[in-house]
Specification:
This protein is α/β, with parallel strands linked by helices. The protein has two domains: 264 residues, Type I PLP-dependent aspartate aminotransferase-like (Major domain) (Aspartate Aminotransferase, domain 2), CATH 3.40.640; 140 residues, Aspartate Aminotransferase, domain 1. Helices cover 46% and strands 12% of the residues. It has 20 helices and 14 strands. The strands form four sheets. It has a seven-stranded mixed beta sheet with strand order 4-10-9-8-7-5-6, with helices on both faces. A three-stranded antiparallel beta sheet has the order 11-14-13. The chain has a two-stranded parallel ribbon with strand order 1-12. Helix 3 runs antiparallel to helix 13 and helix 4 runs parallel beside helix 13. Bound molecules: pyridoxal-5'-phosphate. The site of pyridoxal-5'-phosphate has 15 residues, from helix 5.
């Protein structure tokens, strides 16, 4: 078999291998590993080869600090010469982003989701705190003392976001992240009884805290969020609603989350990654209303350095793919698969947080099983399933060992799995979880009650992955022979 993809991939690796076989080899090995293990990390996916190839080129060499205005004619605002081609790529990518999400503005330069959040924070601070404090003066020429007054104000603002144990992200005000160092950070949690967001409680807390920024969005929450309600809560206290849709951007793009559950019409600022359910390159993006457009466009120099033009190109390919009608079917299937997985797990006695899911992820509660999330994560990897341990609300094992597992269906859906396969997956999960030794001591390596169970689970994964391939256009045998020996 020699598809254009096969030839391109083989040549690309051959070129790398001539210089650094030590790097080429693990790249090819990763291709094999990803085709043999069940990829169920909820934040991962398989991007297309078109996305990958758009990144693998000379665009990485170009400096393009500044930005490009893309409404109407392209107007470059760059600090460096020779950016015409990057201008074209950035403008096209941003236009597609606006079309895909129905956004007023898109800033497609952020290098990652964490960067996107930092740029968003500082854009909000600039508009809502710095601008009124500075008035018509120029910060660059204010006296040291005058600027110090502004800086103290910037450093004295409040953030209210979802807690880490309630599905929030590190960048939402976790103490070890800069978000809790630059803001006086407060977090809201899910209800202890239901595990669900309690909007009345959040509204009450927002009235007490009066934050500058209210964050909604999550990395580990299996239900829809009502962004219309969150906007009301923010408006009532004069806060800016910032939604971090890093995990579920693909479900927004694919119109699974619409109306009150679509963050874009409700939030002033929406941040995201492009590599999770959206299935693009590893990167970030910020969408906003017109109010924040000019400040976001100055994300460099505000926070970031030069953009990654090769990654912006790949984001463009990703958005074009997501604008095709098939992407809606994909997004809908992700959620059907996650629901099927949750139901099949529950049927087999595996406890699923909130009793199910409305998005791409399933959270498994291990509290009654006597081993930690960390031990289960290791046992799953031994059985060729890649997923991650996760804290559950009010977790007593802490963020390192944890009492939960998080599984996502975005990647398996990309390779074509449906509800029937999710039942097979759930059966493998139950085999693993039911045959792990309880109480090995939370810091010990996991133990099997009977080693045959691990073999049985591995056989199950092999049988499944034999029927599906992440890259049907690639001939693994040829690649293996040539590069792995
Ligand atoms: C993944 C994630 C991020 C961070 O994205 P990176 O690209 O890893 O920096 C930020 N916020 C949320 C909610 C996420 O899930």
């Amino acid at each position: 078999m020699s598809t254009p993809e096969q030839q391109a991939f083989e040549n690309l690796i051959a070129v790398v291998s001539r210089v650094a076989p030590e790097i080429a080899r693990p790249i090819v090995q990763e291709l094999f590993d990803q085709g043999r293990n069940l990829k169920m990390i909820a934040s991962e996916n398989y991007s297309s080869l078109a996305v990958q190839f758009a990144m693998a080129n000379l665009l990485t060499d170009k400096y393009a600090e500044g930005y490009v205005e893309y409404e109407g004619d392209i107007k470059p605002r760059r600090f460096y010469a020779g950016c015409e081609n990057v201008d074209a790529i950035e403008a096209q990518t941003a236009r597609w982003a606006c079309e895909l999400f129905g956004a007023e503005h898109a800033y497609v330069q952020p290098h990652s989701g964490a960067d996107a959040n930092l740029i968003a924070f500082w854009s909000i601070l600039t508009n809502r705190v710095e601008a009124p404090a500075v008035g018509d003066k120029n910060p660059a020429t204010m006296s040291h003392e005058e600027w110090e007054v502004v800086r103290q104000k910037l450093g004295n603002q409040r953030l209210l976001g979802p807690g880490l144990y309630s599905g929030g992200h590190l960048t939402h005000g976790f103490r070890h992240n800069v978000s809790a160092k630059m803001f006086e950070a407060f977090s809201y949690s899910v209800s202890e009884e239901t595990g669900l967001l309690d909007y009345d409680a959040i509204a009450k807390q927002a009235k007490e805290v009066k934050p500058l920024i209210l964050i909604a969005g999550y990395s580990a929450y299996p239900r829809k969020v009502d962004f219309a309600k969150m906007r009301q809560i923010a408006d009532d206290v004069g806060a800016v609603l910032m939604v971090d849709m890093a995990h579920f951007a693909g479900l927004v793009a694919g119109k699974v989350f619409t109306g009150d559950f679509d963050p874009v019409p409700h939030a002033q600022v929406v941040t995201t990654t492009t590599h999770k359910t959206l299935r693009g390159p590893r990167g970030g993006m910020v969408l906003s209303t017109k109010e924040f457009r000019d400040t976001l466009n100055r994300g460099c120099p505000l926070v970031a350095g030069g953009p990654l033009p090769h990654v912006m190109a790949a984001k463009g390919v990703c958005f074009k793919e997501a604008l095709q009608p098939g992407f809606r079917d994909y997004a809908a299937q992700i959620v059907k698969n996650a629901s099927a997985l949750a139901a099949s797990l529950e049927k087999r006695g595996v406890k699923v947080l909130t009793g199910g899911t409305e998005n791409h992820l399933v959270l498994i509660d291990l509290t009654d099983r006597g081993y930690t999330g960390r031990q289960a994560e290791e046992a799953f990897r031994e059985c060729k399933i890649t997923l991650n341990r996760n804290t559950i609300p009010f977790d007593e094992n802490g963020a390192w060992y944890t009492s939960g597992l998080r599984a996502g269906t975005a990647a398996l859906t990309t390779i074509g799995m449906k509800e029937a396969e999710m039942d097979e997956v759930a059966s493998i999960y139950a085999t693993i979880l039911d045959h792990m030794e309880s109480k090995p001591g939370s810091k010990a390596k996991h133990l099997w009650k009977d080693a045959g169970a691990a073999d049985k689970a591995r056989d199950g994964v092999d049988a499944l992955m034999k029927r599906f391939s992440p890259y049907p256009a690639l001939d693994l045998d040829t690649l293996g022979k040539r590069f792995l020996g």
